[in-house]
Amino acid sequence: MEKKLTITNERVDDIPLLLAQMERMGIQPMLDECFPTHGNWHGISLGWTSVIWLSHILSLGDHRLNHVQDWAVKHLETLRGCTGQEVRDLDFSDDRLEEILDALSDDQRWLGFEAVLNQHVIRVYDLDPHMVRLDSTSASGYWSVTEDGLFQFGHSKDHRPDLPQVKVMLSALDPLGMPVATQVLPGKSADDPLYIPAITQVREGVKRRGLLYVGDSKMAALQTRAFTQAGGDFYLCPLSKVQLPDDEQEAYLNPVWSGEQALIPIYRERPDGTKEQIAEGYELREPLSAVVDGKEINWTERRLVIRSLEQDLRPGLGIVEEEVRLNVEVDEEAVNRAKRRLGWRVYATNQPEEQIPLIQAVLAYRNEYVIERAFCRLKGKPLSLTPMYLQSDDRATGLIRLLTIGLLVLTLLEFTVRRRLAANDEKLAGLYAGNPKRSTARPTAEAMLEAFKIST
User: Is there a contact between 283 and 346 (Cβ–Cβ < 8 Å)?
Assistant: First the structure.
């Protein structure tokens, strides 16, 4: 008998790499365990559907639900071969993907999944957490605003105050930028009250104490610092004028201006190995007390008085709508006082000097790009949170949580390759278009995934 041979051609691209990475992270079985489905669920499980959907998002930078089924049709044999599952295109219908987002919007189940995933990843990748960065961002969109809904007008970090937004609070391990806690909040939420819940979520998810939490001045509320101290953790943040008014800051600076207080120079190493001075300063100690959960606590806080040598001056751009004439008289004394304070900032930490000396504390705070890069990935091409095309609060919450899993995938893929290259003192070539011989010891996850795609 003659047998007919059927040949199927599919683009494999970076799909096997992404699915293998998620398999090592154990995402699929943990999703299935933490988000059980009802008896009417047919086809591959929620966990398998989610990781395949994530491979689509990470490969194409597109989270739109109505594009996934057509993509799956073109990759069925690849998906079946990589997963060992009888994948069908109907597993990725809009209705099925919406069910996944509804499931991920369950707060209690999400917290359980997040904790299990964090502890698994820390163990499998032999991570030793010491520092967590906390910050928030907003994502704007063309949504309908309801009184108690998720989409609200607020201070826009996208510079679109005309659009409603959702706020995302992210806690990320340093130096990976690996997300360990995510909060999805109404767009009008103030930042200050978000830090204590974020720290609580990290503590419950990572199961570690003695971590250093790094944040901006909105983290510096006395109650937040006291909460961190009471829980056996550390904080590092700049003090705003609310916590340290101008007259108190000036009292710290008077010994410097009089020449009584010497300053420690702070250097940063450039990529070429040379060093440049970026700041100078000194430190002092202040006794503090506060009430946490009805109990008074007392501790000593280190105040780092730092003058930055890099002036970040951004001239504003605007439109002149009318011309006015003013007669002004310059208060030279006030101008001179203000000029003397330029570049000075006071940071607060409760971590002992032997664990993080002044120089290391300043350098640690300056590495803010770690979490900013996470936000760029979340909102930009790799994950494309914005623009978001969902109107349901629950499904928007579920999508943001799904995308943070994708952010974790990118982070750990990059970390694994860089660690292996460093261990073998090697570099990776072939990632730069037009320059195939150029190599790097610090490849990005995005560049590596792009290298697996077939040129068209």
Answer: no
The tally of domains found in the chain comes to 3
Q: For residue 351, how many other CB atoms are within 10 A of its CB?
A: 21
**Rounded CA gap, 179 and 120, in Å?**
14
Q: Which amino acid is at 199?
A: I
- Predicted confidence at residue 312, as pLDDT, reads 42
**Phi and psi at residue 5, to the nearest 5°:** -100, 120
C-alpha 240 chain-centroid distance: 23
Distance CA 5, CA 113 (A): 45
226-283 residue pLDDT tens: 999 999 999 999 999 999 999 999 999 999 999 999 999 999 988 788 999 999 999 9
Q: Residues in the chain, how many? A: 456
d(CA 445, CA 454): 17
3-state SS class at 304: strand
Of 66, 86, 104, which residue constitutes the final position of a domain? 104
Per-residue model confidence as pLDDT tens digits over 370-427: 899 999 999 988 898 888 888 899 999 999 999 999 999 999 999 999 999 999 999 9
Q: Between the CA atoms of 225, 226, 231 and 236, what dihedral angle is there, to the nearest 10 degrees?
A: 20
Q: How far apart are CA 239 and CA 247, in angstroms?
A: 14
Nearest to 395 by CA among 185, 99, 27: 99
Cα 452 to Cα 37, 127, 191: the distances in Å are: 34, 27, 40
Of the candidates 61, 83, 104, which is a domain's last residue?
104
Helix (H, G, I), strand (E, B) or coil at 348: strand
> Which pair of tokens denotes residue 362?
């300043």
Please tell me the distance from the alpha carbon of residue 446 to that of residue 453, in angstroms, as a whole number.
Answer: 11
**3-class SS of residue 69:** helix
Average pLDDT of the chain? 90
Q: Averaged over 301-306, what is the pLDDT?
A: 97
| Average pLDDT, integer, range 100-112 | 97
pLDDT at residue 311 greater than cutoff 60: no
Asked whether 276 and 385 are in contact (CB, 8 A), the reply is no
Instruction: Confirm whether 149 is domain-assigned.
Output: no
On the question of pLDDT at 316 being above 50, the answer is: no
Specify whether 243 is located in the same domain as 343: yes
Per the CB < 8 A criterion, the answer to whether 275 and 267 are in contact is yes
Judge whether 436 lies within some domain.
Answer: yes
Confidence class of residue 315 from pLDDT cuts 50, 70 and 90?
very low
For every residue of 335-391, DSSP letters joined together read HHHHHHHTTEEEEEE-S-TTTS-HHHHHHHHH-THHHHHHHHHHHSTTT--SS----
